[in-house]
Input
Amino acid sequence: MCGIFGYLGNKQASEIIFQGLQRLEYRGYDSAGIAVKNGTGIALEKKKGRIHNLQELSKNLKGTLGIGHTRWATHGEPNDVNAHPHHSTDKKIMIVHNGIIENFSALKEFLNCSCISATDSEVLAHLIQHHYKGNLLEAVRLSLLQVEGTYGLAVMHQHHDEIIIARNGSPLVVGLGKNEYIISSDLAAIAPHTKKYFCLDDKQIGKLTPSGYEVKDLENSAITKELERITWDVKSIEKKGFSHFMLKEIFEQPASLKNCFRGRITNDEIKVTLNLDDAFIKSINRIILVGCGTSWHSALVAEYAMEKTLNIPVEVEYASEFRYRNPILHENDLVVVISQSGETADTLAALKEAKKHCKTIGIINVVGSTIAREAGSGIYIHAGPEIGVASTKAFTGQILGLLLLALYIDEKREKTANLKTIKDALDNLEEHIKAILEKNEDIKKIAEAYYNSTNFLFLGRGSNFPVALEGALKLKEISYIHAEGYPAAEMKHGPIALIDEHMPVVFIANQNGLHDKIISNMEEVYARKGSIIALTTDDRELKKYTKHIITVPETIDLLQPILNSIPLQLLAYHIAVLKNLDPDKPRNLAKSVTVE
Ligand code: M6R
Output
């Protein structure tokens, strides 16, 4: 949440920062600002709203050292004053901050200062001014010793050719270019400039100057950073001719899923490396899957597959609830945290809590992210950068990642799964998904028929129930249409009261053991004049109920939820676009939720 970008080198900083902020805009888009050191002081421009509002203004900023920020409001409404950067009273110090300063009221009292914004962040600028005695790094270090909360932080001072950076709970990476440094909240924004980088770890602070950099911990001990290299192609963060990142990412699924299982499954072996010894795996009594939002839905899908494959009880928990519940955990439990970004605050806290009691692993997309590092070991889903706020290719990748985990555990225990059947099905997945994507125009036509609806129900049974939940979440977050997902049989226990001719109901109605039951549920909606959209592997019986049928190829039960969720992603996408909304940046949302 919120994006930090900074530049120190010999090019014009404002242009580079503006472009960097555009790449980080998915992290927050309430307001944006840039500060650049010029010959006389620090010039500042900030503006409420999307980053493009800053384009003209930023041209006024001339200089080769600067910091910028794109905001997702926590404390204080989105407006010009609350936008970052914030400055000290003497205007010599500028800061940009991600995270939350929990003791900001106490700090304000301590400083006896009045802030001009309603943010928790501004107090940091005043605190640094308070500690400043000519050494900016030391002033920031002393300030952070007083801070409770989380921060990704970049600080500049009118009298120093340097940027001070710090991190606790909010990511910050430093790219090392030729005679230049680029700082950013994520790798995607530095990739166009350099492939060489290092990540700050929690409670580390650094100084970047034209002649070099240093990193230390808050206790003042020097730290040597290992340099890492970006291995993915910069083109993967471009739209490549698609009108939105979300659409591009939906269309990437044939490849992203292949990347997830490639080299990891053969006819008789699962090849993943986990920090779990065989004796522990044999002793696992319970698996607890933890995540938020779409990641929580992928866990619900996996619960079915895992219990079926492993015959071990699997529980699925919202990270935000799990972390505060004093969960009862035993040494024979395995906690699996699931996160696309690897930065979600609740998931990270849940992981830290679980680590105190039992073994943990992560199912993560972003390589090197905080949760990936903290988890110790796990399975990267290798979906590639996901920029659209609505998670699509990461969802299907997470289902697959969790399946690989289940198969790996099975291999070390009972070996019940028929890997050849699963491998064959995976090999066909690419063609199956391509066949679904070819129906894009048909799905758009269905969207045209329903985009003015104000409510939607999504119904499914078995592992299609979480697919229904995910379909509803996708629709509501990008189209602002109220949507609910239910197990189809639950409808008659309440939601059926909502059914009338204005209520579209999406049924996920595969030919599986529960098909007849779901047809009965469809009858109930049909009888009450609800409009039915049916997703199925065989449309023969369904034509009676609706002309809006999406057929998907049939695969093994373990993989069918992956295929079923893709048309629902397209349906949500087209409805949002027809409503003239930007599906990549839905209101009030941000891609990585790094605050509670
Ligand atoms: O990065 P994470 O997977 O931890 O994010 C969890 C949720 O914030 C995320 O899935 C959110 O629900 C998406 N916007 C859904 O599309």
